[in-house]
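Researcher: Let's continue the batch. This sequence belongs to Fumarylacetoacetate hydrolase family protein, and it's 284 residues. Same format as the previous ones, please.
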Amino acid sequence: MLGLLRDGTLREAGEQALAAPAPTLAVGDLRLRAPIPDPPAVRDFMTFERHVEGVARLGGTDATVPERWYEAPAFYFTNPYAILGPADDVPVPPGSRMFDLELEVAAVIGRTGRDIHPDDADAYVAGYTILVDWSARDVQFAEMQVRLGPTKGKDTATTLGPVLVTPDELQPWRTDTSFGLTMTVEINGERLGQDRWSSMAFSYADMIAYASRGAEIRPGDVLGSGTCGGGCLAELWGREGLNAHRPLQPGDVVTVTVEQLGTLTTRVVPGVEPIPIPPARRGR
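Model: Same format as before. Here are the structure tokens for Fumarylacetoacetate hydrolase family protein:
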């Protein structure tokens, strides 16, 4: 897939497959990999206001969305070497006792660009796929106290899949920022939350323009939308308290669905214990 994106031949390959279909196999008989298993870069944004407001309440029930959030689509870089596919289990990150999931939709970039205007940015999207950002909240909260991150709290795994859907397939549901489709999260068969993809406060064009400001984006780059409203445990903890739902633990089954993009079902498995690191040498 990455080769097709870099060569600009993705559409041609699809047309050839339709014109001369080869023997097919049932999806259930296959183990699908991530549509982009080795992205050059992964940027994860925060574009759902309801999610930002809910997580902000972890700092106090009267907390609100920071005014700075409305000014630009903030993002961080996450680990491109930690991509999981639709059939892969996810391990609990080393040392984490507050493991969480975050349901997003990623845009995959199909063209190289820099300093792209929002009016031109949609042409850089090759397709969309479900993204699950697996988060060690305790690790994340601790590391962000030193005004860096998130880093290790988001370093263990990102799930992509099950397919890459091209923009033309989603055109009937197009809205000003994304698409009028439903996003749903279940844990062990029980509904955690639901939102509309169209609730994004920034569009993918906004995200691409900001990501490319003074920097290059390349084919295969992944741009996550950020977590939808109701799409993670941290938001629930912010609104209802830490006892509202226990963190994820080995044996849990997480199922996420986005209309027209498909469903991902992931099993949580034990991770490894962290290798101890000595504290900093003070006074150097």
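Researcher: Any comment?
Model: The domain at 1-9+34-269 is CATH 3.90.850.10 (Fumarylacetoacetate hydrolase; domain 2).
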